[in-house]
Protein backbone atom coordinates (compact mmCIF):
# COMPACT_ATOMS: atom_id res chain seq x y z
CA UNK A 1 0.00 0.00 0.00
CA UNK A 2 1.35 3.44 -0.92
CA UNK A 3 0.92 6.28 1.55
CA UNK A 4 1.51 9.22 -0.79
CA UNK A 5 -2.01 10.53 -0.19
CA UNK A 6 -1.63 10.58 3.57
CA UNK A 7 -0.07 13.35 5.64
CA UNK A 8 3.56 12.75 6.59
CA UNK A 9 3.99 14.53 9.94
CA UNK A 10 7.48 15.25 11.21
CA UNK A 11 7.29 18.67 12.82
CA UNK A 12 10.00 19.54 15.33
CA UNK A 13 8.30 20.20 18.72
CA UNK A 14 10.91 22.85 19.43
CA UNK A 15 10.52 26.22 17.71
CA UNK A 16 13.97 27.51 18.72
CA UNK A 17 16.37 27.50 21.64
CA UNK A 18 18.61 30.10 23.23
CA UNK A 19 21.21 28.31 25.30
CA UNK A 20 19.38 26.29 27.97
CA UNK A 21 16.07 28.02 27.11
CA UNK A 22 13.87 26.05 24.73
CA UNK A 23 10.66 27.42 23.21
CA UNK A 24 8.30 24.63 22.17
CA UNK A 25 5.05 24.68 20.22
CA UNK A 26 3.18 23.03 23.09
CA UNK A 27 4.22 25.68 25.60
CA UNK A 28 3.45 28.50 23.16
CA UNK A 29 -0.04 27.17 22.39
CA UNK A 30 -0.67 26.47 26.07
CA UNK A 31 0.22 30.07 26.96
CA UNK A 32 -1.75 31.46 24.02
CA UNK A 33 -4.89 29.68 25.23
CA UNK A 34 -4.61 31.31 28.64
CA UNK A 35 -3.74 34.72 27.17
CA UNK A 36 -6.84 34.76 24.96
CA UNK A 37 -8.89 33.31 27.82
CA UNK A 38 -7.84 36.18 30.07
CA UNK A 39 -8.93 38.65 27.38
CA UNK A 40 -12.36 36.99 27.10
CA UNK A 41 -12.87 36.93 30.88
CA UNK A 42 -11.84 40.60 31.15
CA UNK A 43 -14.53 41.54 28.62
CA UNK A 44 -17.11 39.48 30.51
CA UNK A 45 -16.20 41.12 33.82
CA UNK A 46 -16.41 44.60 32.30
CA UNK A 47 -19.74 43.90 30.61
CA UNK A 48 -21.24 42.63 33.86
CA UNK A 49 -19.95 45.47 36.00
CA UNK A 50 -17.33 43.44 37.86
CA UNK A 51 -13.78 44.62 38.56
CA UNK A 52 -11.67 43.62 35.52
CA UNK A 53 -8.50 43.64 37.63
CA UNK A 54 -9.88 40.58 39.43
CA UNK A 55 -9.25 38.61 36.24
CA UNK A 56 -5.49 38.85 36.79
CA UNK A 57 -5.85 37.08 40.13
CA UNK A 58 -8.34 34.63 38.64
CA UNK A 59 -5.88 33.74 35.87
CA UNK A 60 -3.16 32.94 38.38
CA UNK A 61 -5.48 30.58 40.25
CA UNK A 62 -6.54 28.89 37.00
CA UNK A 63 -2.98 28.45 35.70
CA UNK A 64 -1.79 26.94 38.99
CA UNK A 65 -4.90 24.73 39.26
CA UNK A 66 -4.49 23.53 35.67
CA UNK A 67 -0.80 22.66 35.87
CA UNK A 68 -0.87 21.11 39.35
CA UNK A 69 -4.13 19.25 38.73
CA UNK A 70 -3.10 17.98 35.29
CA UNK A 71 0.27 16.79 36.59
CA UNK A 72 -1.13 15.03 39.66
CA UNK A 73 -3.93 13.59 37.54
CA UNK A 74 -1.45 11.96 35.18
CA UNK A 75 0.74 10.67 38.01
CA UNK A 76 -2.10 9.27 40.14
CA UNK A 77 -4.56 8.14 37.46
CA UNK A 78 -2.18 6.66 34.90
CA UNK A 79 1.14 5.76 36.57
CA UNK A 80 0.67 5.73 40.37
CA UNK A 81 3.17 2.91 41.03
CA UNK A 82 5.92 4.65 39.08
CA UNK A 83 5.50 8.08 40.69
CA UNK A 84 4.65 6.99 44.24
CA UNK A 85 7.79 4.82 44.28
CA UNK A 86 9.81 8.04 43.86
CA UNK A 87 7.53 11.08 44.47
CA UNK A 88 10.22 13.54 43.41
CA UNK A 89 9.47 12.47 39.83
CA UNK A 90 6.10 14.22 40.15
CA UNK A 91 7.94 17.55 40.09
CA UNK A 92 9.67 16.78 36.78
CA UNK A 93 6.93 18.31 34.64
CA UNK A 94 9.41 18.90 31.79
CA UNK A 95 9.54 15.15 31.22
CA UNK A 96 5.90 15.22 30.11
CA UNK A 97 2.71 13.81 31.52
CA UNK A 98 -0.43 15.95 31.97
CA UNK A 99 -4.01 14.66 32.23
CA UNK A 100 -6.99 16.81 31.20
CA UNK A 101 -9.26 15.21 33.80
CA UNK A 102 -6.81 16.19 36.52
CA UNK A 103 -6.60 19.67 35.05
CA UNK A 104 -10.39 20.03 35.24
CA UNK A 105 -10.41 18.94 38.88
CA UNK A 106 -7.54 21.30 39.64
CA UNK A 107 -9.36 24.27 38.12
CA UNK A 108 -12.56 23.53 40.03
CA UNK A 109 -10.65 23.30 43.31
CA UNK A 110 -8.63 26.45 42.60
CA UNK A 111 -11.82 28.39 41.91
CA UNK A 112 -13.23 27.33 45.26
CA UNK A 113 -10.39 29.19 46.95
CA UNK A 114 -10.59 32.11 44.53
CA UNK A 115 -14.29 32.75 45.17
CA UNK A 116 -14.03 32.69 48.97
CA UNK A 117 -14.75 36.18 50.35
CA UNK A 118 -15.41 37.68 46.89
CA UNK A 119 -18.78 39.43 46.89
CA UNK A 120 -20.73 39.15 43.65
CA UNK A 121 -18.57 36.29 42.39
CA UNK A 122 -20.18 33.12 43.64
CA UNK A 123 -18.54 29.81 42.75
CA UNK A 124 -20.99 28.81 40.01
CA UNK A 125 -21.15 32.37 38.67
CA UNK A 126 -17.39 32.32 38.03
CA UNK A 127 -17.21 28.74 36.75
CA UNK A 128 -20.11 29.25 34.33
CA UNK A 129 -18.16 32.04 32.66
CA UNK A 130 -14.73 30.50 32.91
CA UNK A 131 -15.68 27.31 31.04
CA UNK A 132 -16.12 29.42 27.89
CA UNK A 133 -12.40 30.30 27.50
CA UNK A 134 -11.34 26.96 29.03
CA UNK A 135 -12.95 25.16 26.08
CA UNK A 136 -10.96 27.40 23.73
CA UNK A 137 -7.75 26.75 25.68
CA UNK A 138 -8.40 23.02 25.37
CA UNK A 139 -8.49 23.44 21.60
CA UNK A 140 -5.05 25.11 21.63
CA UNK A 141 -3.59 22.46 23.96
CA UNK A 142 -4.67 19.64 21.66
CA UNK A 143 -2.90 21.42 18.79
CA UNK A 144 0.14 21.42 21.04
CA UNK A 145 -0.21 17.65 21.37
CA UNK A 146 -0.25 17.46 17.57
CA UNK A 147 2.99 19.43 17.38
CA UNK A 148 4.48 16.96 19.90
CA UNK A 149 3.28 14.00 17.80
CA UNK A 150 1.54 12.53 20.85
CA UNK A 151 -1.88 11.22 21.91
CA UNK A 152 -2.94 10.06 18.44
CA UNK A 153 -5.25 7.28 17.34
CA UNK A 154 -5.30 3.87 15.71
CA UNK A 155 -4.37 3.08 12.14
CA UNK A 156 -6.75 4.44 9.51
CA UNK A 157 -7.18 4.37 5.73
CA UNK A 158 -8.92 7.75 5.68
CA UNK A 159 -7.18 10.28 3.40
CA UNK A 160 -6.46 12.62 6.31
CA UNK A 161 -4.54 9.97 8.24
CA UNK A 162 -1.24 11.20 9.73
CA UNK A 163 2.00 9.23 9.57
CA UNK A 164 3.83 10.38 12.71
CA UNK A 165 7.34 9.86 11.40
CA UNK A 166 9.05 11.41 14.43
CA UNK A 167 7.75 8.47 16.48
CA UNK A 168 8.88 5.93 13.91
CA UNK A 169 5.38 5.27 12.59
CA UNK A 170 5.06 3.99 9.04
CA UNK A 171 1.28 3.66 8.89
CA UNK A 172 -1.34 6.46 8.86
CA UNK A 173 -3.10 7.08 12.17
CA UNK A 174 -6.20 8.99 13.21
CA UNK A 175 -5.11 12.55 14.10
CA UNK A 176 -7.30 12.53 17.20
CA UNK A 177 -5.58 15.71 18.42
CA UNK A 178 -7.23 17.57 15.52
CA UNK A 179 -10.58 15.90 16.15
CA UNK A 180 -10.50 17.03 19.77
CA UNK A 181 -9.21 20.49 18.93
CA UNK A 182 -12.09 21.07 16.50
CA UNK A 183 -14.59 19.65 18.99
CA UNK A 184 -13.42 21.95 21.79
CA UNK A 185 -13.43 24.93 19.44
CA UNK A 186 -17.04 24.11 18.54
CA UNK A 187 -17.92 23.77 22.24
CA UNK A 188 -16.38 27.20 22.85
CA UNK A 189 -18.73 28.75 20.27
CA UNK A 190 -21.72 26.84 21.65
CA UNK A 191 -21.10 28.04 25.21
CA UNK A 192 -20.37 31.61 24.08
CA UNK A 193 -23.62 31.65 22.09
CA UNK A 194 -25.58 30.36 25.10
CA UNK A 195 -24.01 33.04 27.28
CA UNK A 196 -24.69 35.85 24.77
CA UNK A 197 -28.27 34.70 24.19
CA UNK A 198 -29.20 35.32 27.82
CA UNK A 199 -26.79 38.26 28.24
CA UNK A 200 -25.12 36.40 31.07
CA UNK A 201 -28.34 35.79 32.98
CA UNK A 202 -28.02 32.01 32.90
CA UNK A 203 -29.13 29.74 35.74
CA UNK A 204 -26.25 28.87 38.03
CA UNK A 205 -24.41 25.78 36.83
CA UNK A 206 -26.00 25.59 33.38
CA UNK A 207 -22.92 26.45 31.33
CA UNK A 208 -20.69 24.32 33.55
CA UNK A 209 -23.12 21.45 33.11
CA UNK A 210 -23.12 21.69 29.33
CA UNK A 211 -19.34 22.04 29.34
CA UNK A 212 -18.98 18.78 31.28
CA UNK A 213 -21.49 16.96 29.08
CA UNK A 214 -20.03 18.11 25.77
CA UNK A 215 -16.30 18.01 26.56
CA UNK A 216 -16.22 14.74 28.45
CA UNK A 217 -18.95 13.17 26.35
CA UNK A 218 -16.79 13.76 23.29
CA UNK A 219 -13.70 12.64 25.21
CA UNK A 220 -15.47 9.36 26.05
CA UNK A 221 -16.31 8.77 22.38
CA UNK A 222 -12.93 9.75 20.91
CA UNK A 223 -11.10 7.36 23.25
CA UNK A 224 -12.36 4.47 21.10
CA UNK A 225 -10.06 5.77 18.33
CA UNK A 226 -7.01 6.44 20.52
CA UNK A 227 -4.05 4.27 21.35
CA UNK A 228 -3.67 3.31 25.00
CA UNK A 229 -1.65 5.84 26.97
CA UNK A 230 -0.32 3.33 29.51
CA UNK A 231 0.22 -0.42 29.44
CA UNK A 232 -2.40 -1.38 32.01
CA UNK A 233 -5.19 -0.10 29.71
CA UNK A 234 -4.58 -2.93 27.25
CA UNK A 235 -7.55 -5.29 27.23
CA UNK A 236 -9.77 -3.00 29.33
CA UNK A 237 -13.36 -2.58 28.15
CA UNK A 238 -13.09 1.15 28.89
CA UNK A 239 -9.78 2.94 29.28
CA UNK A 240 -8.89 5.32 32.10
CA UNK A 241 -9.90 8.41 30.12
CA UNK A 242 -13.38 6.96 29.56
CA UNK A 243 -13.77 5.84 33.17
CA UNK A 244 -12.90 9.33 34.40
CA UNK A 245 -15.24 10.93 31.86
CA UNK A 246 -18.36 9.11 33.10
CA UNK A 247 -18.72 10.94 36.45
CA UNK A 248 -17.99 14.26 34.71
CA UNK A 249 -20.84 13.69 32.22
CA UNK A 250 -23.20 12.56 34.97
CA UNK A 251 -22.30 15.64 37.01
CA UNK A 252 -23.01 17.80 33.98
CA UNK A 253 -26.43 16.20 33.48
CA UNK A 254 -27.27 16.87 37.14
CA UNK A 255 -26.22 20.55 36.85
CA UNK A 256 -28.24 21.12 33.67
CA UNK A 257 -31.30 19.45 35.23
CA UNK A 258 -30.88 21.52 38.40
CA UNK A 259 -30.51 24.71 36.39
CA UNK A 260 -33.61 23.96 34.33
CA UNK A 261 -35.62 23.71 37.54
CA UNK A 262 -34.35 26.99 38.90
CA UNK A 263 -34.97 29.08 35.80
CA UNK A 264 -33.16 32.33 35.10
CA UNK A 265 -31.00 33.74 37.85
CA UNK A 266 -32.14 37.11 39.18
CA UNK A 267 -29.59 39.92 39.42
CA UNK A 268 -29.92 40.20 43.18
CA UNK A 269 -28.83 36.57 43.46
CA UNK A 270 -25.67 37.36 41.53
CA UNK A 271 -24.57 40.16 43.86
CA UNK A 272 -25.60 38.73 47.20
Automatic annotation (TrEMBL):
<feature type="binding site">
    <location>
        <position position="142"/>
    </location>
    <ligand>
        <name>a 1,2-diacyl-sn-glycero-3-phospho-(1'-sn-glycerol)</name>
    </ligand>
</feature>
<keyword id="KW-0449">Lipoprotein</keyword>
<dbReference type="InterPro" id="IPR001640">
    <property type="entry name" value="Lgt"/>
</dbReference>
<feature type="transmembrane region" description="Helical">
    <location>
        <begin position="23"/>
        <end position="45"/>
    </location>
</feature>
<keyword id="KW-1003">Cell membrane</keyword>
<dbReference type="GO" id="GO:0042158">
    <property type="term" value="P:lipoprotein biosynthetic process"/>
</dbReference>
<keyword id="KW-0472">Membrane</keyword>
<comment type="pathway">
    <text>Protein modification; lipoprotein biosynthesis (diacylglyceryl transfer).</text>
</comment>
<feature type="transmembrane region" description="Helical">
    <location>
        <begin position="207"/>
        <end position="225"/>
    </location>
</feature>
<keyword id="KW-0808">Transferase</keyword>
<comment type="similarity">
    <text>Belongs to the Lgt family.</text>
</comment>
<protein>
    <recommendedName>
        <fullName>Phosphatidylglycerol--prolipoprotein diacylglyceryl transferase</fullName>
        <ecNumber>2.5.1.145</ecNumber>
    </recommendedName>
</protein>
<keyword id="KW-0812">Transmembrane</keyword>
<dbReference type="GO" id="GO:0008961">
    <property type="term" value="F:phosphatidylglycerol-prolipoprotein diacylglyceryl transferase activity"/>
</dbReference>
<feature type="transmembrane region" description="Helical">
    <location>
        <begin position="57"/>
        <end position="78"/>
    </location>
</feature>
<feature type="transmembrane region" description="Helical">
    <location>
        <begin position="122"/>
        <end position="141"/>
    </location>
</feature>
<comment type="function">
    <text>Catalyzes the transfer of the diacylglyceryl group from phosphatidylglycerol to the sulfhydryl group of the N-terminal cysteine of a prolipoprotein, the first step in the formation of mature lipoproteins.</text>
</comment>
<dbReference type="GO" id="GO:0005886">
    <property type="term" value="C:plasma membrane"/>
</dbReference>
<keyword id="KW-1133">Transmembrane helix</keyword>
<feature type="transmembrane region" description="Helical">
    <location>
        <begin position="98"/>
        <end position="115"/>
    </location>
</feature>
<feature type="transmembrane region" description="Helical">
    <location>
        <begin position="178"/>
        <end position="195"/>
    </location>
</feature>
<dbReference type="Pfam" id="PF01790">
    <property type="entry name" value="LGT"/>
</dbReference>
<feature type="transmembrane region" description="Helical">
    <location>
        <begin position="237"/>
        <end position="257"/>
    </location>
</feature>
Amino acid sequence: MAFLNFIHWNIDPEIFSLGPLSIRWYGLLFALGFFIGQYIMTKIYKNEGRKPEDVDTLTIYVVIGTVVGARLGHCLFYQPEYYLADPIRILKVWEGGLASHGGAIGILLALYYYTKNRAGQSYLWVVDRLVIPVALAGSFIRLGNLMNSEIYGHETNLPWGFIFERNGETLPMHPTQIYESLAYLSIFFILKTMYNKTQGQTPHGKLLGWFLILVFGFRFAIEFLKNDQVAFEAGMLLNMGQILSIPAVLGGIFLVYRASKKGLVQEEELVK
